[in-house]
Design goal:
FAD/NAD(P)-binding domain; alpha/beta; 354 residues; globular
């Protein structure tokens, strides 16, 4: 018996994969409805198609251009060879959960995990007012994972504040805007020409910077969202025998853009392939790219604001821009060396790593 705590993308996809292999799987979700509350922008690169077939009903827009805007408003447009997908996050979570249900997974909503105990008969878990026993337990329960805390796997964690809102604003529906500044990453993602998602992740003053973005876009809030996002920790232990962590619970988040859907889905594949070798296998699949994203973020966090202007100007060069337009941003290991070969001046940024 496999028990998954948390019905987000990683937990649902893992449950689906295990059920497809003939395993008995149960998912506990503390909220009354899968996909709620929404705490993610829902941007996916084309790489997701190699992992999971996405139904059009969960896609609200497709983006062919992302625009980088530096602190002093130097603008760079990247024309993507393959379009990014903008998801309805609630529908996306429910879509994967439905696939899992069709494969035999049992879901229990309004069911909150509160503790565990290892016994000779398996893992005894407490969910709500009930106690049950399972053979394998997976915490897919977010950045403040109760499973991690109960299993002694929480370790040292760092967080960044994320503030987002669904807004009404006039914008080109084909262009996603990225705002760069010291210790912050902002965005405007259009759903259509009149509606979009605006937000920022920042180590300091997230709310103040969010309000500045709202004013810049002349946007009016429809629905407000916020939350803490884990920063990837390569030293975090994500497995203790038959207990494991996945997704945000395992800090499997790209530290550059703070997106975690694709890493979480890939980690789910690693677990389903061999549950007892999960910690080693997910690191082989996605660990290198998460580590590279972390190093890039650490370097960029040391930039003065004017360095972001210079960086944006370097990316304007056609030989550099072509690499970014061609390769998938989820996997910097596939293009970082090519980027350095085409523009050796990027090596100068290594001084910020010291």
């Amino acid at each position: 018996m496999f028990t998954v705590i948390g019905a987000g993308p990683a937990g649902n996809y893992l449950a689906y994969l295990l059920a497809k292999k003939g395993e008995d799987v149960e998912v506990h979700e503390e909220h009354a409805k899968i996909g709620q509350p929404v705490q993610c922008t829902g941007i996916l690169t084309d790489s997701v198609h190699s992992i999971l077939k996405i139904e059009e009903e969960v896609v609200v827009n497709k983006i062919s251009t992302f625009r980088i805007i530096s602190p002093n408003k130097i603008i760079l447009d990247i024309n993507l060879k393959k379009k990014d997908l903008i998801l309805d996050r609630a529908k996306f979570d429910a879509f994967i959960a439905e696939k899992a249900k069709e494969s035999g997974v049992h879901y229990r909503l309004n069911s909150r995990f509160t503790g565990l105990q290892q016994t000779k008969d398996g893992i005894k878990i407490k969910v709500g007012n009930e106690t049950e026993t399972t053979d394998f337990l997976v915490g897919a329960d977010g950045p403040f994972s109760s499973v991690a805390k109960s299993a002694g796997l929480f370790g040292e964690r760092e967080y960044i504040a994320g503030v987002q809102a669904r807004v009404s604003a006039i914008s080109d529906p084909d262009i996603m805007e990225i705002f760069l500044d010291k210790g912050a990453f902002g965005w405007y993602v259009p759903e259509d020409e009149n509606t979009g998602r605006i937000g920022i992740c920042a180590y300091k003053d997230a709310l103040r910077q969010f309000k500045a973005l709202l004013m810049y876009k002349k946007a009016h809030i429809i629905q407000y969202q916020s939350g803490m996002i884990p920063v990837y920790n390569p030293h975090l232990k994500t497995q203790l025998e038959n207990i494991a962590l996945i997704g945000d619970a395992a800090t499997q988040v790209k530290a550059t853009t703070f997106g975690g859907i694709v890493p979480g889905l890939l980690a789910a594949q690693a677990y389903a392939k061999d549950p007892m070798q999960y910690d080693k296998n997910w690191r082989k699949i996605v660990g290198k790219d998460l580590w590279l994203n972390l190093q890039i973020r650490r370097i960029m966090n040391k930039f003065p604001s004017e360095e972001y202007d210079r960086l944006t100007s370097l990316f304007k060069k056609e030989r550099v821009r072509e690499v970014i337009e061609t390769y998938d941003r989820d996997f910097p290991s596939k293009f970082l060396f090519k980027l350095l070969l085409r523009e050796p001046r990027f090596l100068a940024y290594a001084r910020y790593a010291l």
